[in-house]
């Protein structure tokens, strides 16, 4: 959705999809998630999003970001920003014991990489990818990033999208649990997928034996090739492209994480690992948000 602002000496074009609205006009008193009534003004449109200017030369990048999020997420944010409603959730506050368990998560993740159970889970997921190869390639032609990701997720999980912290959960030895979040990417297309809600992730990692991994699926539609890889959220490549932002979260939340280009994990010979020191620094920063 484009807005053209006619000025005395130039025309300015801005993307005004819901992602790029700061709020709805203060006069829209009846705006609610179940009563979509209101209007926005020129100054309600963001001049930039997370450092990216809202100008035509950046529209492709901005649209790739916008397509990762649902209308419901945008609507809830706009309602909250407009009407100053109470926060929907409170910030997760770990106990001293829970804090220790969270900071031990990288060590658990590193140990899990050597478990036969993890290798078995990855083989099972890869077998599902192969079994649904034709459908995955067909879904890759879907233009809407959010719908495409949801369809791919449904094929792998065999169920409707839960939109929780992870898409699948597996038992691990010694009463542990592996949470797997499925992320898909089309080769050659820019994307910046939302990763996880920080408070929910910290809550999950405060439980003994918890391990959190991404299962990445990369589709090269032109060559009809599909690659997949199970990696820890503390993998060096993943850590290096994980950023934080609060655009999609309530006031009392720590926000969410967003991923950059993680394609290096699909390089021939790449071996998933865990950056123990980097992961602890990363977790500490998240806790302090």
What do you see in this structure?
The chain folds into 2 domains: 2-83, no CATH class; 96-288. Helix 4 (105-112) runs antiparallel to helix 10. The chain is of the alpha+beta class and 289 residues long. The strands form 4 sheets. It has a 4-stranded mixed sheet with strand order 5-6-8-9. A 3-stranded antiparallel sheet has the order 7-11-10. Strands 1-2 form a two-stranded antiparallel sheet. Strand 5 (168-172) and strand 6 (176-186) form a beta hairpin. It has helices spanning 59-66, 71-83, 96-103, 105-112, 116-131, 133-139, 145-157, 198-205, 236-240, 276-288, and strands at 2-6, 11-15, 48-49, 52-53, 168-172, 176-186, 194-197, 210-220, 225-232, 242-245, 256-259. The chain contains 10 helices and 11 strands. 34% of the residues lie in helices and 21% in strands.
């Amino acid at each position: 959705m484009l807005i053209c602002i006619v000025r005395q000496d130039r025309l300015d074009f801005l993307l005004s999809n819901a992602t790029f609205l700061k709020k709805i006009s203060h006069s829209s008193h009846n705006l609610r998630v179940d009563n979509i009534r209101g209007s926005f003004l020129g100054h309600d449109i963001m001049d930039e999003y997370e450092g990216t200017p809202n100008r035509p030369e950046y529209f492709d990048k901005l649209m790739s970001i916008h397509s990762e999020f649902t209308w419901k997420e945008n609507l809830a944010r706009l309602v909250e920003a407009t009407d100053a409603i109470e926060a929907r959730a409170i910030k997760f506050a770990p106990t001293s014991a829970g804090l220790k368990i969270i900071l031990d998560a990288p060590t658990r993740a590193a140990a899990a990489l050597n478990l036969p159970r993890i290798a078995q889970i990855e083989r099972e997921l890869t077998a599902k990818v192969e079994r649904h190869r034709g459908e995955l390639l067909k879904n890759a032609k879907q233009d809407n990033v959010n719908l495409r990701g949801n369809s791919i997720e449904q094929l792998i999980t065999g169920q409707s999208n839960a939109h929780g912290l992870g898409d699948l959960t597996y038992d691990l030895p010694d009463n542990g649990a592996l949470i797997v979040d499925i992320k898909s990417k089309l080769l050659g297309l820019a994307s910046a997928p939302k990763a996880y809600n920080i408070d929910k992730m910290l809550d999950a990692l405060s439980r003994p034996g918890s391990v959190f991994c991404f299962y990445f699926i990369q589709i090269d539609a032109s060559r009809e090739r599909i690659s997949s890889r199970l990696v820890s959220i503390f993998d060096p490549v993943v850590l290096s492209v994980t950023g934080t932002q609060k655009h999609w979260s309530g006031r009392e939340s720590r926000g969410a994480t967003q991923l950059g280009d993680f394609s290096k994990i699909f390089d021939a010979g790449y071996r998933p690992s865990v950056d123990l020191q980097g992961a602890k620094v990363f977790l500490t920063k998240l806790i302090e948000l």
